[in-house]
Amino acid sequence: MAEGNTERVHVLIIGSGPAGYTAAIYAARANLKPVLYQGIQPGGQLTITTEVENYPGYANGIQGPEMMVDFEKQAHRMGADIRFGLATKVDFMQQPYKVWIDDEKIIEADAVIIATGASAKWLGLESEQRLNGYGVSACAVCDGFFFRGKEVAIVGAGDTAAEEALYLSKLCTTVHMLIRRDAMRASKVMQERVFKTSNIKVYWNTDTEEIIGGKNVTAVKISNNKTGEKQEIPVNGFFVAIGHQPNSEIFKGWVEMDEAGYIKTVPGTSKTNVEGVFASGDVQDKIYRQAVTAAGSGCMAALDAERYLSAKGAH
Fold first, then answer.
1. Of 110, 143, 282, 285, which one is the catalytic site residue?
2. Percentage of residues of the chain with pLDDT beyond 90
3. Which of 142, 282, 285, 304 is catalytic?
4. What is the pairing mode between strands 35-37 and 87-91?
5. What range does the domain containing 141 cover?
6. 282 vs 115: CA distance, rounded Å
7. What are phi and psi of 133, to 5 degrees?
8. Residue-level pLDDT at 308
9. What is the tens place of the pLDDT at every residue in 169-181?
10. Same domain, 109 and 127
11. How many independent structural domains does the chain possess?
12. Contacts with 71 (C-beta within 8 Å, 6 or more apart), sequence order
């Protein structure tokens, strides 16, 4: 690679969901001249959400993609340099840190804020992608409200699936819980709560074959993987709760992560084990995963970066 394709920046933000854009707003206001690369999905997971009703300040709710456009415009107005491009490799061996964009350009940065988010794991059905946002969702807390008084299905067998099924049971008439094996992975206490909830119906050894619907979800086609018996359950909503995958692959070997790949931060801060590298949003949060908590941690990362650079005398 030609040396001429290297650019030095003060603060580099990788990712463009609520965490990345909020970090950019704060960093720009602190005169850190942040450069933000949007990544593969500008706006992050919210761009595949339709109605967002639980973000404070939007009294009438807002469409996810529209909300992310607002975030981007605000960051831009504050002076953040927002660019299209994907971080493909990093080198955090020494300062300034190096980050490759689209495998061709190197950005050297005094501080790096990682806000690459997480991606929901999907079943991989064509109908699931086609109806995503039209009855199919990977977040019961975000979207359950739209299915009040209706029947829904949820697929998954871990604590998250159990938690989301219980959440949905308070809103929906019946929750059909589809489990692939003859047992749940969820903790015993969560399993007991599910079994005690009268409107959660558990289906064991069940595979989801297809989600049915034209414009919106109307039913789910399932089959028993032991007996081969097939059936169709009429539902208005289909929730996928088989886990999330943090988008942290390129940081492996550089920053500390847990066994699932979530970046570890010093509790109460956005600091990673690498000095001057901060992590915010869903790439380091497997518990809450909400737009508002991601935005809050983006603010923390910018303030932590500012303090770090001040202490270094680089700001």
1. 143
2. 87
3. 142
4. unpaired
5. 122-240
6. 8
7. 90, -10
8. 98
9. 999 999 999 999 9
10. no
11. 2
12. 18, 21, 22, 25, 43
Give 139's Cβ-side CA count (13 Å radius).
Answer: 22
The CATH code of the domain that includes 158 is 3.50.50.60
User: Which entry of 91, 110, 139, 282 is annotated as an active-site residue?
Assistant: 139
Instruction: Count CB neighbours of 210 within 10 A.
Output: 15
Compute CA distances 249 → 90, 110, 244, whole Å. 10, 22, 13
Convert the pLDDT of each residue in 102-145 to its tens digit.
999 999 999 999 999 999 899 999 999 999 999 999 989 889 99
Q: Which of 217, 240, 263 is a domain's end point?
A: 240
pTM of the model: 0.82
Answer yes or no: do 112 and 258 share one domain. yes
Using CA atoms, how far residue 128 sits from 72, 225, 249, in Å, is 29, 20, 25
Q: How far apart are CA 108 and CA 11, in angstroms?
A: 9
State the Cα–Cα distance between residues 186 and 285, nearest whole angstrom: 19
DSSP H or E run through 23? helix 18-29
Q: Verify that 213 and 176 share a domain, yes or no.
A: yes
Residues 224, 258: one domain? no
Q: Is 299 a catalytic residue?
A: no
Please report which confidence band the pLDDT of residue 240 belongs to, taking 50, 70 and 90 as the band edges. very high
Residue type, 182: D
CA dist 21 and 44 (Å) reads 10
pLDDT band at 1 (very low <50, low <70, confident <90, very high): very low
> In Å, what is the CA distance from 72 to each residue of 20, 108, 182, 282, 291?
9, 23, 46, 18, 14
**How many CB atoms are closer than 10 A to CB 171?**
17
Last residue of a domain, one of 179, 212, 240: 240
Residue 142 annotated among the catalytic residues of the structure? yes
